[in-house]
Design goal:
heterodimer, A: 117 residues, alpha+beta, hypothetical protein PF0899 fold, three-stranded mixed sheet, three-stranded antiparallel sheet, elongated, B: alpha/beta, Rossmann fold, seven-stranded parallel sheet, 8 helices
Chain lengths: 117, 219
């Protein structure tokens, strides 16, 4: 349910980047979201369709690149996905693991249309 | 013409900058700030009230209460204990953010305080994403919630500085595997400082109050 705040932040970042680059319209926004960000794509899209109305970002297509959360075992170096629930290392059963990826929450790049100078 | 613009900016960037600003305000006033998170019913308000009863005289506490509905049940209890309290009604939002804290700080007598506890909205998912500018993120887990919560809600355990395990007086009545719980915590946040206590009986509070007093007085 925190997707409204997240979506407002995405809009603000894209809007600012478009203005700094003399963009007249933002056509595409590329997001990178780690599994641990707990963000639901459909929910962001729902809010986006409303809050982007009347802005330079209206109609922009959101592209979601999901990054799975990955764990690595400190005992045997095995790498495995977090999955639905946290589990000990499936290779050696050690609980001595760390989270290696999956916490990303980024606006990576946008595509804009701009006036010829 | 079409152009690609590289950004690579963290979505939480603007919130995090406001949070840094909040921390600067706290630091200027020599205030130690705590962000208290938990699921609904874990005992956040009871924990704060029991803490208030045991605070040494040199600690001057202020409380920011976050709630999704315009009810002042929690902040009334805090105010009744003689502690300055501000209620934030999030208007249905499931978490507090740095902007709300900035406004709440405006309403507290900062010059008279050296500790602020923020009671976040009861939720194990959303508050984890929003830094508030406090110095310590603390989660209150409780025995009746079950021993599997670190496994199901890994994200909130990741960013913690302290874990409170509340309602330990209920341990005889509930199948709570302490080893299993602690293993999950250790996988997500190795070496996490943990206080097991009961806000009802007061058991375990001495160690918590000692830690808290040390943090506030050395700030």
């Amino acid at each position: 349910m925190h997707e409204l705040a997240i979506t407002e932040s995405i809009l603000s970042i894209a809007d600012q980047a478009a203005k700094e680059n003399n963009g007249t319209k933002v056509t595409d926004i590329y997001l990178i979201l780690g599994q641990l960000s707990s963000i639901v794509d459909d929910s962001v899209q729902f809010y986006w369709d409303h809050i982007s109305l009347g802005t330079v970002c209206e109609g922009a297509v959101l592209h979601f690149e999901r990054r799975p959360a990955m764990l690595r075992c400190k005992s045997c170096n095995h790498q495995y996905p977090l999955g639905e629930i946290l589990q000990t290392c499936p290779n050696c059963q050690s609980p001595d693991v760390f989270i290696e990826a999956g916490e990303e929450m980024l606006v990576h790049h946008i595509d804009i249309l701009r006036e010829e100078p | 013409m079409s152009q690609r613009v590289e950004i690579v900016k963290r979505i939480m960037d603007s919130n995090d900058r406001l949070a840094q600003n909040n921390q600067a305000i706290l630091d200027q006033n020599h205030i130690f700030g705590i962000n208290l998170m938990a699921s609904p019913g874990a005992g956040k308000t009871s924990f704060i009230l029991e803490t208030i009863k045991r605070l040494p005289a040199e600690i001057k506490l202020g409380v920011i209460e976050g709630d999704t509905a315009p009810v002042t049940i929690d902040s009334d209890k805090i105010a009744a204990a003689g502690i300055p309290a501000v209620q934030i009604n999030t208007g249905g939002e499931c978490h507090l953010d740095a902007n709300m804290i900035e406004m709440a700080l405006d309403e507290l007598p900062l010059e008279d305080l050296n500790l602020i506890m923020v009671e976040n909205v009861g939720n194990l998912i959303c508050p984890a994403a929003f830094q508030l500018g406090t110095h310590a993120n603390i989660l209150i887990a409780s025995i009746p919630e079950g021993d599997d919560k670190p496994y199901k809600y890994p994200n909130i355990y990741r960013g913690l500085d302290v874990l409170i395990l509340n309602k330990i007086d209920l341990t005889p009545y509930i199948d709570f595997r302490m080893d299993y719980f602690q293993q999950g915590v250790e996988m997500l946040n190795p070496g996490l400082k943990t206080f097991a206590l009961s806000a009802k009986t007061g058991e375990g509070f001495d160690a918590w109050i000692t830690w808290l007093t040390d943090k506030v007085t050395t700030k």
